[in-house]
């Protein structure tokens, strides 16, 4: 007997994608990723910039708190007379030894040099020249906002002050700079600086007892090749970048005359053998031309335009690239060997050329003004001499306390 045959057909279901379908899915994912990854990058860049701006606002708040407490803004240490007058005002009972110590720490002599003539410990400290870069425009922020001692006579070296005698030093002179180190535990700071972003080289016990060469001190001079180590640390908003700097309105255009010429107020450091520098920023408001042109001097030319915040201060910080600017002077080299160069807030550049006759217009010999017309919107790529990453226009992403938001380049939009 024949049995009916069961159907040999049964439902079959695919267990995966075909190769074509898989390729389509991969293509779609890649397209989405291509759109998303740049967007994420932009978002992360914005977040980092906002975080840096928030910290800059904290520093600005610290400066304003300092003003409320003392009735004066901190000096930027470019001129001793203003520094001295400031501390006599806010600490009327300050001991003379405190002022002498501060001067010796900021003169042109190495702190432990007692063989030069005159030696560091000459009875008259001011017989040695003041160095406007000894406490530079970045270090002054930490010095001024980190807190002073409550001792009215010894605000610098008293308990909780910025300086402390190196332990086990036998009877040091109170104004001898070689016997002091930075004090990381200061009293009542206006700003609580993150310790890991201060340029401090701490005492190393493996090298023996504390000494002039092995103490708590700054290490930014070694990092940036800008001089001898001192006790004044600086502060960065972002690891690996240039430090935040401060300029006092009283000395925006101050200068000292050196062997290389007039050295105008600014900050500079070496990066990979190139100069990274910054100066106070001018507004877009020009002053009247000189009554008897030309200007005749760089200082006179510096009054051709009005600075931003002419009665208070400027705080500036590099952006995410960690760089300030490749132009501190006309030739882009050392920032003190030719006429100083400055940015205006709209991205133009002026140069302090004594032969100029008015603030506006091209520089001589093609014109009679102070403007380097090759620079527009902070774009320095048209300048003939290659300098520090010029193609990236590092000034564009800098931050400032007087910008409402974002960077200098954002402010142009």
UniProtKB/TrEMBL annotation:
Q: Which PROSITE patterns match?
A: PROKAR_NTER_METHYL (PS00409)
Keyword Membrane part of the UniProt annotation: yes
Transmembrane residues, as ranges?
A: 20-43
Q: Which SUPFAM superfamilies match?
A: Pili subunits
The question of whether Transmembrane helix is a record keyword is answered with yes
Keywords carried by this UniProt record: Membrane, Transmembrane, Transmembrane helix
Gene3D superfamilies (UniProt xref) = Glycoprotein, Type 4 Pilin (3.30.700.10)
NCBIfam families found in the cross-reference section: IV_pilin_GFxxxE
Which protein are we looking at? Answer: Type II secretion system protein G
Please give the organism: Stieleria maiorica
């Amino acid at each position: 007997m024949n049995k009916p045959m069961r159907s040999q057909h049964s439902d079959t279901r695919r267990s995966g994608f075909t190769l074509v379908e898989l390729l389509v899915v991969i293509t779609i994912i890649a397209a989405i990723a291509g759109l998303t990854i740049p967007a994420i990058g932009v978002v992360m860049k914005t977040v980092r910039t906002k975080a840096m701006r928030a910290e800059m606002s904290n520093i600005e708040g610290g400066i304003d708190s300092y003003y409320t407490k003392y009735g004066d803004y901190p000096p930027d240490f470019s001129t001793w007379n203003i520094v001295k007058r400031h501390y006599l005002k806010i600490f009327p009972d300050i001991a003379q030894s405190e002022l002498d110590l501060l001067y010796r720490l900021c003169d042109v002599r190495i702190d432990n040099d007692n063989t030069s003539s005159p030696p560091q410990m000459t009875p008259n400290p001011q017989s040695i020249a003041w160095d406007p870069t000894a406490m530079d425009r970045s270090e002054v922020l930490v010095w001024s906002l980190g807190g002073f001692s409550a001792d009215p006579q010894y605000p610098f070296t008293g308990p909780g002050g910025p300086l402390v005698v190196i332990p086990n030093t036998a009877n040091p002179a109170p104004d001898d700079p070689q016997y002091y180190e930075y004090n990381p535990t200061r009293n009542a700071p206006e700003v609580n600086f993150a310790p890991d972003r201060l340029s401090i080289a701490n005492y190393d016990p493996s090298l023996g007892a504390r000494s002039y060469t092995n103490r708590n001190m700054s290490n930014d001079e070694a990092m940036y090749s800008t001089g001898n180590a001192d006790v004044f640390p600086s502060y960065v908003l972002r690891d690996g970048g240039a430090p935040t700097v401060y300029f006092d309105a009283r000395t925006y255009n101050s200068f000292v005359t050196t062997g290389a010429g007039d050295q105008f107020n600014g900050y500079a450091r070496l990066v990979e053998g190139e100069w990274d520098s910054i100066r106070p920023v001018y507004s877009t408001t020009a002053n009247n031309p000189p009554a008897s042109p030309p200007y005749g001097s760089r200082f006179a030319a510096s009054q051709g335009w009005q600075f931003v915040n002419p009665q208070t201060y400027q705080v500036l910080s590099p952006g995410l690239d960690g760089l300030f600017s490749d132009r501190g002077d006309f030739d882009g080299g050392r920032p003190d060997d030719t006429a100083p160069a400055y940015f205006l807030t709209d991205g133009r550049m002026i140069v302090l050329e004594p032969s100029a006759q008015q603030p506006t217009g091209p520089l001589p010999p093609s014109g009679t003004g102070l403007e380097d017309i090759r620079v527009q919107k902070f774009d320095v790529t048209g300048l003939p001499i290659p300098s520090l990453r010029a193609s990236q226009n590092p000034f564009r992403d800098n931050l400032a306390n007087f910008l409402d938001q974002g960077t200098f380049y954002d402010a142009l939009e």
